[in-house]
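Technical note accompanying the year-one report. For the benefit of new consortium partners, we illustrate the data format agreed upon in the data management plan: each record pairs a sequence with a structure-token string. No post-processing was applied to the example shown here.
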Amino acid sequence: MSENNEKRKKASGPFFFVPGENNKFRFVDNGDGLNPRYVDRAELQSVIAAENPAHNKLLHGFVTNYRDFKSAKRAVELRSFPVVVRNFSFKGRLPKCGGAVLMTGAAALRVRTKILKDMGEEEANHLLMAESEAARSLGLSTIPSISPEEFTAYAELPFVVECRNFYNYYHFTTESLIYLQMYRDFGMSGPIHFVTGGAGELKPYIERAVEDFYPDLFDRIQFLTGSTSYKEAIIPFTTNHLYHFSTAAMLADIEEEAGFSNKLKNGDLRPATIDNYRNIFRNSRDEYIRLHRDAVLTRTFHDESAKLVYVSRKPGAARDRAIVGEDLLLEMLGRYGFKTVLFEEMTPIQQASLVNSADVLISAHGAGFANMLYGKPGAHFIELSHLQTARHRFGDFNMHASASGVFYTHFFADHSIGEDDAVPNLHHEGHAGIALSQLAIDRLELMIVNLTDKESTKTFFTRVGALRKRQDHAAVISLITSDRLRSSACPNALTTLAETYVHAGDIPSAINTYVHLLKIVPYRADLWVAVAKLAAASGDDSAVAWAEAEAEVYKRARWMRWCRTETGAISIMG
């Protein structure tokens, strides 16, 4: 730590506030205590349809790494509660209690970002690690609390909720709006202050979300930008970052109970590293995500026309993250009766109602996917994205999928910008648009067929099976190749077709079919072996070497073969 910061610390005390160290921070204890619950994890699936060979390989590695090192068997539902704070302020994006920075919720990540920028990475991380370790060394077993009955004397204090900004629907809904249900649950009656240090105007749809979902509270709310301070106030507090500042004496270990995929032992996530913070974030949710969802669904209505939904974007919206190939996508979706909507033209309650009515919803990655929170259990939400999104935004909506119980599929296609294998730089080039190839659209169509018309799939393969039993190779080949969709995108049909070509003695067609098939299932080691054997028999040594090299590249992703779902997507957690 620099000499200047060392002097500052000695003069003013710890940089970070430690809950439990004094009476400036008292939580309302309704009898549930501090410890988390363990709930069903998000049902995450993936389809890797990127045609760029380098990106395709990287995406298979990315999903495999997530499964092996960054996931958990159960989601951690973190407790949240109102806290009465004294000498609370919000200045320069730093929430402070008694002059020390308070780490809670999503604000904690913004605090990290700010101090990294202000101090530099090494000094900021040293400060955070040193002070969190010092807090744990105190061995505190509890936080000062007040009972719900005692809390009535404080109910008229301002309820202060920090916001990233007043224009991003995802951040506002997920990190701030949800706490209006806390205000209701604990019988508060004072003014409600949404505060932000972010730039940008208050967007009408943010106000409308409050009015639609919490009409009884709308008149009590003020949106405040800039610095604020309170002698005494109430804030919502979630225990995600408290984990790094406490021991099991206060907050129980979560690693073994949640079953983290990298076999973490209890206490391994206690150090306040950014990797540990993100590991918890990806595999947890605030309990008020669920409680907010429950409250909103009491106000939604059923939309019978919204069983199959595609959410598009207005031209020019969201930094013009256009979808290349959307005209072909819309044509395909239209054949199956999908309803195309624009969230920009709908009120928040209309969006929530539509989402809760949908059996299948498809859309590009974006803030509107926060509405997945209102999906009905068992529905399928398919998010169109790419490698850039995977690297920077994967996991942002896990909590929404976990709370709603939907199947959440990451459908990875290609970037709409960039001429080489480089991944577009998010910070310099912004969010890249999505490019859908014809094969990607075919694979998406097959998913839809598998979800909405299972009988046709059953009938098709019954016919194929009967012809194979009679060893009528010509008829099998004719049946499969005459089916445009399955001969393009169905692994089972293509495997049968390749094998039938071999039986018929048409080796070049067999090899071509296997090569096309391996664009869809490159993790199938047995198929690479088949290509190598056929190429060797044909005397094509270069093809043999290519097949063996590609098989090695995809070796770590072989688990995917055993985790295919009935839709064709891969269940990431098996």
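Partners are asked to follow this layout when depositing records. The CA atoms of residues 457 and 470 lie 20 Å apart.
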